[in-house]
């Protein structure tokens, strides 16, 4: 049975969304095409009608995941205009975000996977990282003068590192300590 163009595009978007979540949970190589397609409610045979390769899907799913992450940062900042940086830190460096595997930060979830791939897979991550840096730069630029770009880089590095470390340990007190220490240091950096 043939699928209409509209339905085919809906199916493609569903696969990209599901893959963006499953890749964050399992890594690019930690899940096969059969399981990705089953997660989207489709057969494996439909995959090659929509994507040229698993790497093509990884690129599209990475774009989706990073766009979603950027939207979450923006939403947190908009909801708390009195302290937008604090709102982003409270969301990003929270225990809830630490426990998110499928919808959490794609930079943390897939950073080491991306490092082992080529330029095409790295490109959406680079764009997403730059978008995060721009957001952080805007949040601190009003008080930071010309140094805000370097501070934004340091802050993003600390946020990503703290979240990654908090996910790497079993001890929940230590995990929370990483998040809390980063939040405090970032606030100090931003206000200096």
From TrEMBL:
Keywords assigned: DNA-binding, Transcription, Transcription regulation
Gene3D superfamilies (UniProt xref): Homeodomain-like, Tetracycline Repressor, domain 2
Residue ranges occupied by any HTH tetR-type domain in the UniProt entry: 9-69
DNA-binding region(s), chain positions: 32-51
Pfam annotation, one family: TetR_N
InterPro entries for the chain: Homeodomain-like_sf, HTH_TetR, Tet_transcr_reg_TetR-rel_C_sf
Organism superkingdom: Bacteria
PANTHER family assigned to the protein according to its UniProt record, in alphabetical order: TRANSCRIPTIONAL REGULATORY PROTEIN
Protein name listed in UniProt: TetR/AcrR family transcriptional regulator
